[in-house]
Amino acid sequence: MDTMRERFTSVTSRMLAEDPRLALVLADIGAAGFAEAEQRHPDRVVNVGIREQLLIGVGGGMALTGLRPIMHTFASFLVERPFEQLKLDLGHQGVGGVLVSAGASYDWPSGGFTHMAPGDVALLDTLDGWTVHVPGHPDEAETLLRHAAAAGDDKVYVRLSMQSNAAPRSVDGARFRTVREGRGGVVIAVGPMLDSVLAATEGLPLTVLYATTVRPFDAATLRAAADAAGTSDVVIVEPYLAGTSTRPAAEALEDRPHRLLGLGVGRQELRRYGQLDEHLAAHGLDPRGLRERITGFLTGRA
Fold first, then answer.
1. What is each CA distance from 50 to 30, 72, 99, in whole angstroms?
2. 45, 71, 108, 226: most buried by Cβ count inside 10 Å?
């Protein structure tokens, strides 16, 4: 199976040929995979080099001319480093584009903290009007990439990862999907966390919702699931900073008593490189860690 990033390269190359409005801006990262696309569309595929602020600035300029720019690099260089340009060159100018990241929270541990971005979605939450997709499988990544490319002039972030669920699910770029039903509580699994959540909650009477589009937050589906489960105990398992989505979840349930547990990447930096699975376990995001924390939260409801 190809990775999400490999699928991004092949799908975007095809979309550039299909839609003359699309453009691609790179900052060296991933440029080799688009060599053929650059030869075919030299006016719409631009590599600005290792200049991430310029990456966003060029994308914003393209959007002002009517193009739909796709901007790609590691998440830490796409959201964190050029944050001012996201705020001004896109948001303040009233134009949109598609950010497509790689690296996620710690996909490349040996790259060190410079290449990790567990706070990317939380940072975008400080800006207005962003749609955020977090696919959990390469097939879902393709669907959401095409959805983002066709989304008019909207501002869209597609967060790719080396983590992947074993099988794809049907996604529509808007709603959470109900994967399992129960009456003991509701667990929202975001993107590549679904398989771990399903393993962690096996045999427990819990509703599991699958979220691949987290902004806008699907309040209606969460409320319906809580009503069906007869409880407002909600756990959110995200592959980025813990608690990132507890605020919109609390707003969805603000008219009723509820309890929320936000699980995700901790704030403490893990300074040993290790491997991806070791980082997951260290943050309690492996099936064993998730089961302990979820059951502890639910059994402590009294």
1. 12, 12, 16
2. 71
